[in-house]
User: Fold this.
Amino acid sequence: MDIRIHQGSLLPRVPDVMSKSSAASQPVSQNAQSLPQSEVENENEQDQRVVLSKELDEEATGYKEDNPVFKEDYENLEKAMDLIQAQIHTLQERIDKLMQSREQRFMKINHQQDITPDDGAVIAEHVGSKKYRDNTVTDEVKELEKQLSELKGQEAQLRTQMLKAILAERERLEELKSKGKL
Assistant:
């Protein structure tokens, strides 16, 4: 299970003074040179989150082997996370589909059916029906985005619970070691 930590949820953002001062002495990849500074920082933050996530996953795996109660609780959190992520993915696809213009959806349908629309054909639509359709789509997108936001909030809560479970188990083991019971 991959635990992704949202920016700012664990560690405060510290300016990367070392990398900026040593940037002149280190070669920079061609990819990093062509990207704007904000995208490079985003990429670095994602890399740091992935490393942290892998470390926490490994730690959780070790705890699952040693503690059956932790294993059961953590696996339940992982199952819930998988379900929420599937729902988020489905909602995002629906929103993306609704955000496409009608012509793009039409071309996609025709492309899938191997039928090309007539180049000279104009789709005639009443102004009132177009406005109603656009308003309906906009309202549906707003509602789906609200649901998506709620699901992302639930996902963040689950991630927090998973992190708290790992930290609690770590503290429990440290306490046992300090008492000499481990």
